[in-house]
Amino acid sequence: MDAEMPVKDHDLLIEVNTNVKNLTTTLHSYTSAASLQAQDHEQRLRTLEAANQKLEGAQKSQKSFLNWVSVIGAVAMVALTVVMVLRGQS
């Protein structure tokens, strides 16, 4: 009976070793898949952030243009009012 114990222990160790190797391989494949997915998400985020920055720049430019149009319009209204007042007094 003493001879059977080392064989059972040896078989158990081989089974445990095989399970650990399988687990390690599975974990490695999951880690690789998660890493690829994270890289994909990172690339999409970079693209979205670049588009957002471009849009924000366009919006700032448009606001600046509209501010200048408002200022020019106000100046034109004042000039037109002055001309009309001066014509009315003549």
In words, what does this structure look like?
Helix content is 96%, strand content 0%. It has 90 residues and is mostly helical. The longest helix is centred in the middle third of the chain and has 86 residues, at 4-89. It is rod-shaped. The model has no long low-confidence stretch (mean pLDDT 90).
Compact summary:
With 90 residues, the protein is mainly alpha-helical. The chain has 1 helix and no strands. It has one helix spanning 4-89.
Compressed to H and E, one letter per element, the order equals H
User: Structural class per helix/strand content?
Assistant: mainly alpha
Helix content: over 70%
Radius of gyration: 38 Å
Task: Show unreliable segments.
Answer: none
How would you sum up the global shape?
rod-shaped
Count of β-strands: 0
Average of per-residue pLDDT values: 90
Distance between the termini: 131 Å
Count, helices:
1
Largest sheet: none
Q: What share of residues are in beta strands? A: under 5%
Topology:
Blueprint: H1 4-89
Index terms:
mainly alpha; 96% helix
